[in-house]
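Case study.
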Amino acid sequence: MRINTKMEVRLDELLSSLSLALDLAENKSLDHSRRTSYISFRIADKLKVSQKIKENVYYASFLHDIGISNMPNQNSLEEIHSDLNLKKVHSDIGYKIVKNLPFDNDMSKYILYHHENYDGSGPNFIAKDDIPIGAQIIALGDYFEIAHKRKDISNKEKARMKNLIKSNKNKKFNPEIADALLELMDTDKFWLDLSINLNHEILNLITPEKVKVITMKELGQIAKAFAVIIDGKSKFTHLHSDGLADNVYMMSKYIGYDKQKSVKMKIAGYLHDIGKLAVPNKILDKPGKLTSEEFNIIKTHPYWTKLILSQVKSFRHDIAQWAGNHHEKLNGQGYPEKLRGNEITEEDQIVGICDIYQALIEDRPYRKGLEKLKALNIIKGIVDSGGFDKKIYELFKEAI
Ligand SMILES: [Fe+2]
Ligand SMILES: [Fe+2]
Ligand SMILES: [Fe+2]
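After joint prediction, the assembly is written out as follows.
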């Protein structure tokens, strides 16, 4: 199959889509990051801060709670945001992840300080001008998003929220920033935008004028960081996506895909299990046998993977498919779409074979990792029952 390998990845689309993955996690609320991004951007716009600050606020909001995914305990969003120590822990983790990514430096600082209070009573005890303005804006956007009862645009709710913001002026919040939000709250549009379930579309309307496009190298760095988050979710899979991505890349080169396409395959490898962020840890980490209902929940993960990655337009016809189809089988026995035959591409199967191989050679709580040959033999069994193409399997075996 010939695929256009030239690719333009928009940073706003990518971060918005990855934020969906972060918010699907069990301890989060859906679209929390996107809604925070909307509110914070509107405040920044109202305040007439520089274009650079506006953009950093918009982008950083998508990732502001990225540190929650790798916290040892599964606290709820409300718990995390009402405990000083938990506030500090996830802000610190988030800072460490984002600081190494190819973004403007200020973004990671905004994440580090997104729970500081204006009066200095926050997790790092810094106050007023010592807190970056973008962090102060996100702090307020985040606070509003969590406190506001979604969809309720009654006068009672509006008054309650206004009182909450007013009474925290000069304490939690910079008075000028709070006033900007209060002004927004006087408009119907603000409440209506937040009350309808079209967060994606509404965000598209306010996306920064100059769309940022990232390079393949930058995309690789961001995808790898997410692979670490995905793998870190369960102690049994701590190197799964990383190892798999290496094999997918190796195999892509071996069968002669060009450099660009091989890199895209690697990215599909890094992100193939991103939908696992939506699967509760108590199921992922369950030591014994899963009930059939629990297994049904595990089986939702490639569905989420495809949905999340398809939000990036330039991923929709390749990376999202290759990653999202990794549990499909030629004989129609796979999931979640029961694709069969030529509905499943060579690329899908490469990710699928590498996934099984990787899982087999890794240690599991109930067994040691298998040797190469044993793992290959098990995959051969799947080929024999019509799951994968024999030629692709043979090439994989040679490549390994
Ligand atoms: Fe937070
Ligand atoms: Fe938050
Ligand atoms: Fe998977």
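Observations recorded in class. Residues 1-5 have pLDDT under 50 and may be disordered. The two ends are 23 Å apart (CA to CA). We will return to this complex in the next lecture.
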